[in-house]
Amino acid sequence: MNGSNGKENVLNDREKLLEQLTGVDSSKLNYYVELKKRNQEVLKQNSRLQILHQLSRDINLDMSVGDILERAFTKLPQTLPCDFLGLVTVKDGVLSLKASMPRNFCKIDDFPAHSPSLKVIRDKRGGIFNLGPEDLLHVRHNPGNPGPLRALAVVPMFKRDEVIGALIVASLSDGAYLREDLSFVQHLADQLSISILNARLYKEVSRAKKEWEETFKAVTDPIFLIDTDYNVLLHNDRLPPEMSAQWNKVLSSKCFAKLHDRDRPCTSCPLEDVRRSGKPVYRRWQTEGGILLDLSYYPVFNEEKQLSAVTIIFKDVTEKTKMEAQLVHSAKLAAIGEMAAGVAHELNSPMTVIIGTAQMLVRDFPGEVDRDKIEALEDIINCGLRCKRIIQNLLTFSRQDELPTSEIDLNEEVERVLSLIRYQINRSQVEIIPHLDPDLPKINANGPQIQQVLTNFLVNARDALDDGGRPEKIIQVTTALRRRDKKTWIVLSVRDNGTGIAPEALPKIFTPFFTSKEATKGTGLGLSVSLGIAESHGGTIEVDSIPGEGSTFSLLLPLEQL
Question: What range(s) does the Histidine kinase domain occupy (predicted)?
Answer without folding.
Answer: 342-561
